[in-house]
Amino acid sequence: MVSAKAARGGSTIGELRQSGAMKLLFPRPDPALLQAIVINSAGGITGGDSFALTARAEAQAALSLTTQAAERAYRAQPGQVAALRNTLTVDTGATLHWLPQETILYDGCALRRHLTVDLAQDASLLLVEPLVFGRAAMGEALRHAYFRDRIEVNRAGQPLFHDAMTLSGDVTAHLAAPHIAAGAGALATLIYVAPDAEARLPRLRAQLPDSAGASLIGPDLLVARILAADSFDLRQSLVPILGALSGDTLPRSWMT
Questions:
Q1: DSSP strand E in 156-220: where?
Q2: DSSP state, residue 65
């Protein structure tokens, strides 16, 4: 569990508790934005694993969370499913950036992932979830995999954006269908909640590749979905977009 609190005109650590393989590092002090890097010292996730992260940006604070590198969902034993639960809270006047690097699904993986975000009425959020369907450089295909993902963003106790996806079996064949992903090997979901969301839309659309789209689905809610051939192409799109939306505070681990 980690929280950021407003202090001395900026943000600092409010509370920190950690155990098991999931650790947090704070790379450098920033007077305006508390940055934390999530490290999975187990090196990945496999069937039977259970990870949970709880983070809070307290009133008027700013918190940015990323990962040290791509997360890996490895082959699981039959009947074993890994669980990953992330719970974020953004209090009044606060800002939270949820910027994990890619989750790579390996053939044979079994993973349930659930992200819940609770926003105060005037809170701001930048969220991205990049996903890679196998290692393209290794010629890997997802012929036997299971992945269930759910994103829930609520504001003042009311649903703001809910999204769910389940992939099972021959995922590569499923994604090859023209009306689903046309063979894309990577996907990202991006959510931006802030008063300037509408003003950001034209520039965001100009930065997107042809295999992506963005919509304003509320006066301050912008959502984009990006399909790409592989993780390299996905990152080529995401880095400039996230840099702009984060106010040029994109964590350094994204640049390596």
A1: 158-169, 186-193, 212-218
A2: E
- Length of the chain in residues, anyone? 256
Please tell me the pTM assigned to this model: 0.97
Contact predicate 69/98, CB 8 Å: no
Q: Report the distance separating Cα 228 and Cα 236, nearest Å.
A: 10
pLDDT in tens, 42-86: 999 999 999 999 999 999 999 999 999 999 999 999 999 999 999
Can you spell out the DSSP letters for 87-155? EEEE-TT-EEEEE--PEEEPTTBEEEEEEEEEE-TT-EEEEEEEEEES-GGGT---SSEEEEEEEEEEE
Rg for the chain, CA atoms, rounded: 18
Burial 4-14 (b: 16+ CB within 10 A, else e): bbbeeebbeeb
